[in-house]
Each structure stands twice: as structure tokens, then as C-alpha cells.
Amino acid sequence: MAETAAPIPHPRLELPLAEARTRFVQLARLAGLTRQTTVVTDGGRPLAAIVPVTEAGPERGNGAAAGWIRRIEKLRAELRRQHVGLERALEQAWRELDRLSPPGADAHLDALRAAHSDVRARAPGPE
Q1: Are 78 and 70 in contact (CB under 8 A)?
Q2: Is the pTM of this model over 0.85?
Q3: What superkingdom does the record give (predicted)?
């Protein structure tokens, strides 16, 4: 019977930051073509890596990264929802202020209206 072949290791290279900077395009292309990983060092300490895209993203099977991405997206959606609610509440407050003290009735309130005119112009309409 034939023995199973050992997997061929992907090339790995360590370069100082200055050299990696001058060879960035070449290193990026090598990562895609040969699956080479380049570790960028600063004073001998690893700083960053240029890796093939198949090894960089959550599609690699990194469940922890995928989990964090889901959590972040969930938080973003919740923050967007809260932001819209706050914008609507602020617009309601301005409508009530306009009703109670129409423009021109109070100089301080008119100054506040002018200062917030850009925010008021973007505010969503009533539901």
C-alpha cells in the first residue's frame, strides 16, 4: 500500500516593517498565489501578518470570529433601532416646543432652533 503524503507546508516569511512596506504589492500577490504568510515585524517583534484571504476571514471555520461578527451585527441593529427612536422622540419634543412657543416668541429658543436646524432637517417624520 502507498503511504499518505505529508501535506506541503505553506511558505512563511518574516520581514521588518520597512521592507514589507516597500514590497507590499508583491507580498499580497504571493499570499494569494502561493498561500504564503508574511509576518511583519517591528524591532524583531511580530506586528501584523499578510495572509491569504482564505485564512483571514470567518469562512475559515473560526466559530469564535463568526460568533463575534453575529453579536456585533445584532448590536448594530439594536443601536440603529434605538437611534431612530431617539430621533423620533426629539422631533416630537421640537414639535411641542414649536406649538408652545412659536418661532419669534423666545430669542433663546430661536437660537436653539438655529443651532439645531441641520439635525431637525434630517429628523424622520411622524409614524
Answers
A1: no
A2: no
A3: Bacteria
